[in-house]
Design goal:
By secondary structure, the protein is of the alpha/beta class. It has 4 domains: about 190 residues, 3-Layer(bba) Sandwich (FAD/NAD(P)-binding domain), CATH 3.50.50; about 140 residues, FAD/NAD(P)-binding domain, CATH 3.50.50.60; about 150 residues, PurM-like, N-terminal domain (60s Ribosomal Protein L30, Chain: A); about 180 residues, PurM-like C-terminal domain (Phosphoribosyl-aminoimidazole Synthetase, Chain A, domain 2). It contains 20 helices and 36 strands. A hairpin with a 5-residue loop joins strand 23 and strand 24. Helix 12 runs parallel beside helix 14. The longest helix has 22 residues. The structure holds flavin-adenine dinucleotide.
């Protein structure tokens, strides 16, 4: 069933605790006509309450992280994996690092806060900050690996005596004693004031007793003035030697907040009213640690961000419909449970505190229950009927009302062209291609582009087109361009120019313009980098986004790389890992990890220009790009194209095949691309399928690739010049042997 056309853009920046609730809520109860986008710096967002338990070794990395890619896919939201660095409020855009801005009608910010490293000289160079927590998680795992079975003494300093710092120091102490039982371990907690300031005196007292019993040194009422030379420098010229230092000082606001022009509180956090809306812009909401509710200031704690999820969700829905948001009063007292790393915990609320193993079990139950809601949403995602229902008329402005009125009766002629105004504006925003080397292109539009081919050069041409398989139009544009240029690079040609064929789903004109702009911006980034001018194209409306290119390249015909030309003794090199087919097959079913998808996309976005240049320079004998037929299919084409097709065969080393993270795992779990069965037909060209039937990498041979790497035959003495993996050797063909022999 087709979803209703999008009329408004709701953009969430940051996958913090409140936003995961908004995602879930929109997944359970979609708002037809609203396009929901999550912009997140980290694909896996940590649940802070469980991080000390992860450090202590009670939870795995997965147990305390929410996979935002999966949650967004389940919700039907777009995930844009990028870091916000500012807002252009006049144009209602979120500014992103290393890519074009994303437009919004309504914006919500939940990006958290982090210790201010600049406040302590030397901290940035010599200490590990607790936030971003995702980064702490990765660093901690590496640290644990290094410390395993260590015998030498180890001194650890933790700066910051709030609940987070106290919980972390206890967790670190517990874990280190477990993994390095013979090492002498000295752990110190340094804090500017008293520990657990603001909590009940009984809780402070209980915690001092716990720290003393555990042998953790506590230094209260001392500021850290610097870090360096293997020591913490404290005020009063005291020094504290430390091999490892962790910083859990109070949360500070990101510097970009002040560039937005939005009202801030005295510490630089977004000032919001009791409806969680910026006090200076009714199209912007902000929650969690990054915001301060002026009417109800509360400590920066995850519990408040969690509680803001439901009212935020409701108010965003109301705001989209033009209704007044509802005020929300957060609770004044809250339960704080601090794990002590050893399977016990201390709970405090108001003036009382309790401790013991049962308190840890209680905390563990609460935290796991919360995580289950977002890590394991119900199997049946959103109600598709609800998504396809007509949008609420209150959502539509004049432009959107026009769209709703004529949707279904839109002109199908001219390939259902996107309006000329949209295209003109998009092309103007993109600007001219740099170094345009064409006789007639977009700079002087005519009925067709004109290319003059320099003497001694030949024009190579290829065309590719496919539907989107990801929801980020910019990245899709990049991948589509890399995929199309693959054929030009494989010929050893220099990309020259390209014509685009772009399809965007029908939506309000602003949203279509944005989609087209994002797709073509991604494509232009790749084309510009490759030295290829965008010289024209055609854009149309369709049920889903799709993009393709007709690409042109120039090459000296005598130096062109061909598919055929394999020579016995050549090494076979592959320049990118395999597995894009299976990863996106699983992603469509919501079963691929977000980090696998991100790594696959990073590989697909990677142009092959440097690889192609290196292959030409190394005198490669043959080359092709690995795409839809999979490695085996494309390799068979190379062998067929060599001589009369019966001159060479290839010994292929299955163990050597480079695989994207997750690909082998997904094959083992039964996932495969829908094109895999077709590609498997090449198996009759392969010797050793039976012997290697259970080899975990065997299915990689038949996995269709999008924007795959170059596969080349390179003289053995020059193969080290290529940045790729040697996966086999070319052999003289022996009577009775198939094209490929598995080793
Ligand atoms: C060790 C430790 C233990 C803690 N334990 C507890 C506890 O038990 N209970 C409790 O209530 N509080 C606890 N806290 C406090 C808690 O971490 C924070 O209050 C809570 O994480 C705030 O949630 P949030 O939604 O505001 O942001 P966060 O949880 O910090 O989430 C922010 C999200 O935004 C993303 N992001 C950040 N910047 C950008 C950007 N520029 N662009 C795009 N995305 C971005 C991040 O990737 C992340 O997904 C603890 C803190 C620490 C350090």
């Amino acid at each position: 069933m087709q979803a209703a056309p999008f009329l408004k853009d709701l953009v969430l920046v940051g996958g913090g605790h409140a936003h995961v609730h908004v995602l879930k809520s929109f997944g359970m109860k979609p708002m037809p006509g609203v396009r929901l986008t999550l912009i997140g710096r980290d694909i896996e967002t940590p649940y802070s309450g469980m991080i000390p338990g992860f450090v202590a070794g009670h939870y795995s990395f997965d147990e305390c992280h929410i996979d935002l890619a999966r949650l967004a896919a389940w919700t039907g939201a777009r995930l844009i994996h990028a870091e916000a660095i500012g807002l252009d409020r006049a144009n209602r855009q979120v500014l992103l690092k290393d890519r074009p801005p994303v437009s919004y009608d309504l914006l919500s910010i939940d990006v958290g806060a982090a210790p201010n490293l600049d406040a302590i000289p030397g901290a940035a160079e010599h200490a590990t900050p607790v936030k971003p927590i995702a980064e702490l998680g990765r660093r901690w795992l590496a640290f644990v690996e290094r410390m395993k079975d260590r015998h030498a003494p180890l001194r650890v300093g933790v700066i910051g005596g709030g609940a987070g710092g106290v919980e972390l120091v206890l967790a670190i102490d517990h874990r280190l004693r477990e993994i390095a039982p013979t090492a002498k371990i000295d752990v110190t907690l340094v804090t500017r004031g008293e520990i657990l300031a603001g909590n009940a005196a009984s809780a402070q007292k209980a915690m001092r007793t716990i720290l003393a019993r555990r042998g953790i040194r506590l230094v209260e009422n001392k500021s850290t003035t610097g870090i360096g030379g293997g020591a913490l420098h404290l005020n009063g010229s005291e020094q504290l030697e430390a091999d490892e230092i962790f910083i859990v000082t109070e949360a500070s606001a990101s510097s970009w907040f002040s560039t937005t022009g939005l009202p801030l509180d005295s510490r630089g956090f977004f000032a919001v009213d009791d409806a969680l809306r910026s006090t200076g812009d009714e199209t912007v909401y902000a929650v969690g640690d990054c915001a301060t509710v002026l009417a109800h200031p509360r400590p920066k704690a995850g519990v408040f961000a969690v509680r803001q999820g439901p009212p935020l969700s409701e108010n965003l829905r109301r705001a989209l419909l033009g209704q007044e948001p509802k005020p929300f009063t957060p609770q004044r007292r809250y339960l704080s449970i601090i794990g002590t790393g050893d399977g016990r915990a201390l709970a405090t609320r108001g003036g009382w505190s309790v401790k013991g193993a049962w308190v840890w079990r209680w905390k563990d139950h609460i935290d796991r229950k919360w995580m289950r809601m977002y890590r394991e949403p119900p199997a049946r995602p959103m109600d598709m009927n609800a998504r396809a229902a007509p949008p609420d008329p209150a959502l539509a402005d004049a432009d959107a009302r026009r769209l709703l009125a004529d949707i279904g009766m839109r002109c199908g002629g001219c390939g259902a062209k996107v309006g000329a105004g949209v295209l003109t504006r998009v092309l103007a925003r993109l600007g001219p291609s740099p170094g345009l080397d064409v006789a007639i292109g977009l700079d002087a539009p005519d009925d067709a582009a004109m290319i003059e081919v320099p003497a001694g050069q030949a024009l190579v041409q290829s065309v590719d087109f496919f539907r989107t398989f990801i929801d980020d139009p910019f990245v899709f544009g990049e991948v589509a361009a890399v995929h199309a240029l693959g054929d030009v690079w494989a010929m050893g040609a220099r990309p020259h120019s390209a014509l685009a064929l772009a399809v965007v789903p029908a939506a309000a004109e602003r949203l279509m313009e944005e989609d087209l702009f994002q797709m073509l911006s991604g494509a232009r980034r790749v084309l510009d980098h490759a030295g290829s001018a965008l010289i024209g194209g055609h854009s149309g409306e369709g049920p889903e986004a799709a993009l393709g290119f007709s690409v042109n390249g120039l090459v000296d015909p005598a130096r062109a790389l061909r598919k055929g030309g394999l020579k016995p003794g050549d090494k076979l090199v592959l320049t990118k890992p395999l597995g894009t087919g299976v990863i996106f097959a699983a992603a469509m079913r919501g079963r691929a990890r977000g980090t696998w998808i991100a790594a696959a996309l990073a590989s697909m976005r990677q142009p092959s220009s440097a690889a192609a240049e290196a292959l030409v320079a190394a005198g490669a004998h043959a080359c092709t790009d690995v795409t839809g037929f999979g490695l085996a299919g494309h390799l068979a084409e190379m062998i067929r194209a060599t001589g009369r097709g019966d001159e060479v065969s290839v010994d292929l080393h299955l163990d050597a095949l480079p695989a994207l993270d997750g690909a082998v795992d997904l094959f083992a779990r039964g996932f495969a691309s829908s094109l895999q069965p077709e590609n498997l037909r090449a198996r009759h060209l392969i010797d050793g399928m039976d012997i290697h039937a259970s080899h975990p990498k065997l299915p990689l041979l038949f996995d269709p690739q999008t924007a795959g790497g170059l596969l080349a035959a390179v003289p053995a003495d020059r193969v080290s010049r290529i940045d790729g993996i040697v996966i086999g050797e070319v052999q003289p063909r022996v009577e009775g042997r198939s094209f490929i022999r598995l080793m």
